[in-house]
Amino acid sequence: MNFDRSLDAPTGVGVRLSPLVSRILAPNPGPFTFKGTGTYLIGAGADVAVVDPGPLILSHVQALQRAVGRRRLSHILITHTHRDHAPASAPLKEWSGARTYALAPAAQAGAGEGAADEAHDHDFVPDELLVDGAALAGDGFDIACLATPGHTANHMCFVLAQEKALFSGDHVMGWSTSVIAPPDGEMGEYVASLEKLSTRDDAIFYPTHGSPIPQPNLWLQQLIAHRRQREVQILDALVGGAAIPAIVEKLYPAIDTALRGAAALQTLAHLDWLKARGLVIESSGRWIRSGIE
Which residue range forms the structural domain that includes residue 30? Predict the structure, then answer.
């Protein structure tokens, strides 16, 4: 896959990307955030909407406040509730009075099989719960809401109608594939959401991490093909049966130690999806191809 890791942007400074879109990069680089959280501001008139306000870092919140300035902050939009996306919504809301919008809050930790992982901001509760196809509007912009579960159960993308621009959160990124971590992440839903976006004619994607994606449909096809190929590789690795650590070692032999846990969860997500379709079974920690071994 031809990943784009060319992003070279300053933190805390507004960068104009189009007539209606600008981005401010938060100072939180890392193995899962790349150069940091890219918070987007939409609007060139009296209103401005913010997509993914980001982590609770004072300098980043202050940079967003400066960028909004005297305009009305009309919407605070959250693609999903991971801690690098949602927490800064609280001080922005208190400062501006704007309402927050998301598909759903994070599932409560310890809720059983559907429990969310610790990466979520469990303090965030949206003022408005959005549904797939919901429409929002401000001065000079119209936004459609697209539910895209998979990376998380509550992931949602937002589409700026005036520029055919889709804010893809962590669902589609150009610098890396998305981590699908069960039980909150679900591979079957993730691929279905990729296929859902592939039927559209958006001109550009703005992921929360990394550079804009100017030919999104071509990239979507690569991502879907990658998931299908990985599925075949996992099935091949199961000849004779195998546990997840052995599968990870075979599929990701040179992976950074910091990413090994994510690779194991990614593998589990694929295995869960294969199991749901009756293609594999699990017994005492070993996974076996159905009807072969």
Answer: 15-224
pTM of the model: 0.94
6 within some domain? no
Q: For the chain, how many structural domains are there in total?
A: 2
pLDDT along the chain (293 residues), means of 10: 94 97 97 96 97 98 98 98 98 98 83 56 97 98 98 97 98 96 95 98 98 98 97 93 94 86 94 96 92 56
Q: Which two tokens stand for residue 169?
A: 């959160």
Do residue 213 and residue 250 come from a single domain?
no
Domain end residue (candidates: 224, 246, 269) = 224
User: In this structure, are 51 and 139 located in the same domain?
Assistant: yes
